[in-house]
Design brief:
Layout lengths: L10 E14 L2 E6 L2 E7 L6 H13 L3 E2 L5 E3 L7 E6 L21 H18 L4 E3 L6 E16 L5
Parallel strand pairs: 3-6, 6-7
Antiparallel strand pairs: 1-2, 1-3, 1-8, 4-5
Helix pairs in contact: 1-2
Length: 159
């Protein structure tokens, strides 16, 4: 008997930034200074527990340099800011053909409430400003990646 398992995962890309911003229709929507740019992709089966785990992990992630140049400080330790941007393309499947499939990405009616919950939780766990893009909008995201430091985290692997 053939068994097929589907693993669903809330996925994030975290970038340590000197600054980051989001423009929508040419207008600046959100700007942060030093901190984290967090791209968030939500799948069908993701839930509040996934968002809670990710927020705690991201807010405590020690990827900023201490006075000895060692990555030993969190965004809270440096009083940094966070910019959260929804990005369904993080769940692109590219196995077949050259045009990515996004069938694993949650539809807006599922993803929007979870995205909003993720933002609320981030505001509760991060001492600095938490800004965001607009779910579903076509956005221009600009950043200066400090380091560069880019971290991938998903809720399936818990890493």
């Amino acid at each position: 008997m053939l068994q097929v398992f589907f693993f669903f995962v809330m996925r994030t890309v975290i970038q340590r930034v000197k600054e980051a911003s989001v423009k929508i229709n040419g207008e600046v929507h959100a700007v942060i200074g030093r901190g984290l740019l967090v791209l968030v992709g939500i799948e069908h089966e993701d839930g509040v527990e996934d968002a809670e785990w990710l927020v705690k992990k991201i807010s405590q992630l020690r990827i900023f340099d201490d006075d000895k140049g060692v990555m030993n400080l969190s965004v809270n330790d440096i009083r940094g800011e966070v910019l959260v941007v929804s990005q369904f393309t993080l769940h692109a499947k590219t196995k077949k053909g050259n045009r990515p499939s996004y069938v694993r990405a949650a539809p807006p009616e599922k993803a929007i409430p979870l995205y909003e919950d993720f933002l609320k939780q981030m505001e509760q766990h991060v001492e600095g400003n938490v800004m965001s893009g607009v779910f579903g909008a076509r956005m221009d995201v600009a950043l200066i990646n400090e380091g560069p430091v880019t971290i991938l985290i998903d809720t399936k692997k818990k890493e």
